Amino acid sequence: MFLQVTNELLKGFGLTVLLFAVTLVAAIPLGFLISFCSMTKFKPVKWLTKAFIWVIRGTPLMLQIIVISFIPSTVFGIYNKQISIFLNTTVANVNFIFVCIAFVINYAAYFSEIFRGGIQAIPAGQHEAAKVLGMSKKQTFFKIILPQVVKRITPPMSNEIITLVKDTSLARIIGVVEIIMAAETALNKYVVIWPLFYAGLFYLLFNGALTLLFAYIERKLDYYKI
Length: 226
Description:
The protein has helices at residues 2-39, 43-58, 61-75, 80-87, 91-120, 124-132, 137-167, 179-190, 194-220. By secondary structure, it is an all-alpha fold. The mean pLDDT is 91.
């Protein structure tokens, strides 16, 4: 029984890590794009972006997952089974795609505010000094602004990324078998509670590794004294 439960939890943990990785890889560049849109001088784009961020940050991620997963069927009359046939995959994989979309949109909105705060916190005098030195806007951003922004946003980004690890448990809402759902299935099947603690251990180890990684990154960035 122990080996069977362990294998089931490892499969669930694999989906948890995959969801985490997909969200991080897609949400960071999208977050930068959204942050630049929220700072643009073109007001229609700026206010539309701010409204989008307000809606995403003001509603629960669980609700967003449910809404996104039901849009194809309720709005377009296209059901998950039809999508799975079209993509030549399983319904479970279709559900996972919807979860990924919801997570990417949600975390991109949160990341964008962190990026915006980091960029706007840089004194305007540094832009002016770079201009006097004859640096282009691209050189100014990548050589002067970006290194300082990375230093400033590392602590809040580390908090959000660790929160992302724990939020992956919400994928179970639409039947994605991540580690918590795998543990609950094992609990009901074998009538033992230890799989839940076992799942908790996976989270602790994963978040512990991330904590050490971000501590290392912050130490490496100490030469940017701002």
